[in-house]
Design goal:
This protein has 315 residues and is mainly α. It has one domain. It is 51% helix and 0% strand. The chain is built from eleven helices and no strands. Helix 3 runs parallel beside helix 7. The protein is globular, with a radius of gyration of 19 Å. The protein starts with a helix and ends in a 37-residue tail after the last helix. Bound molecules: zinc ion.
Length: 315
């Protein structure tokens, strides 16, 4: 690749997604466009994500299926359908909310979307944090942490119950406040774009924004397989809550391979789609520790789902 194209992709990809795709989505939603246009933007974002991962991969090997492509397609289809269905259900849900709400409908549309993003970021990030601290929640979140390659679709590789819990926490305050459907539609596109960027195998850069935005450079640390070390950088959109919770972690020298990812305590986690749906309900879907004692009810839940005996230093 030419010396011009590579840096263009490296530094242009994130702005294209965050400002270009989201900006187009906000303009369409604000203009009352048919929702099919937002769906078309979502498909364009997924196609762009796959293309850039191949043009500028962080690890080429992460672009190939590790026997997980079919499983991930199923997760993506189910979870994206859930997101789109919940957006479609907003008018019916809004009718159940008493009063007119406090949503600032007179404010500029883009500001309304930014407010929605910040509120959703708060609910989703704290639910994610809780999912690493509470054994019952970790059972369902463990599906997401079983990945051993890091690429765009991983963001939707979640147990549907875990995703529903996160989304409920993120969206309920917005519903109660009376969020308009077009703002929610723009938010749902922004969530999808964020998940693609956050787990992307593209070696893109955002300069100092990596300390503020919850993108892939920071999120790789979240997928480190050792307890404690991987319990960092929980944010969906921003790292604001990680700075406040003191769970922010970053080391510019750190490089990642498949051997660093996943769950040290569960190297044999099921890989099939249906097996992953069932795993949280099984006895072995609980948290484990090498000491042999279950940490399911442990008050020291820092290492709730991972192997605290094999913590490895970063570097
Ligand atoms: Zn997590």
């Amino acid at each position: 690749m030419s010396t011009i194209v590579r840096p263009l992709i490296r530094y242009g990809y994130a702005p294209l997604m965050l400002l270009g795709i989201n900006g187009a989505g906000i303009a369409l939603a604000a203009g009352g466009a048919n929702k099919a246009w937002l769906l078309a933007l979502l498909i364009a974002a997924i196609a762009l994500s796959f293309a850039v991962e191949r043009l500028l991969p962080y690890r080429s090997v992460w672009n190939s299926s590790h026997g997980d492509a079919g499983r991930d397609t199923a997760h993506t289809f189910v979870n994206e359908t859930l997101i789109l269905t919940s957006v479609a259900a907003i008018p019916a849900l809004a009718a159940l909310v008493p009063g007119d709400g406090i949503w600032p409908t007179g404010w500029p549309f883009v500001v309304q979307v930014l407010i929605a993003i910040l509120v959703a970021d708060f609910g989703i990030t704290l639910t994610h944090y809780a999912s690493h601290k509470i054994g019952l929640l970790w059972r369902f979140h463990a599906v997401h942490h079983s990945v051993t390659r890091f690429y765009g679709l991983n963001g939707l590789m979640k147990h549907p119950l875990h995703q529903t819990l996160e989304m409920t926490a993120g969206v309920t305050p917005l519903l109660l406040a009376g969020i308009p459907v077009p703002v929610a539609a723009a938010l749902s596109l922004a969530v999808a774009v964020q998940l693609l960027l956050q787990h992307s195998n593209a070696d893109y850069r955002v300069g100092p924004f990596k300390y503020v935005l919850a993108l892939n450079e920071g999120h790789r640390f979240h997928h480190l397989k050792w307890a404690g070390i991987g319990d960092v950088n929980f944010g969906l959109f921003t790292l604001l809550w990680d700075h406040l919770l003191r769970t922010y972690s970053y080391d510019p020298a750190r490089r990642f391979t498949s051997a660093d990812l996943g769950m040290a305590a569960k190297p044999d986690y099921p890989v099939g789609y249906l097996a992953q749906l069932a795993e949280p309900f099984t006895r072995h879907g609980a948290c484990t520790a090498t000491s042999g004692n279950s940490t399911e009810n442990s008050s020291d839940a820092t290492a709730v789902g991972r192997d605290r005996e094999t913590i490895q230093p970063i570097g």
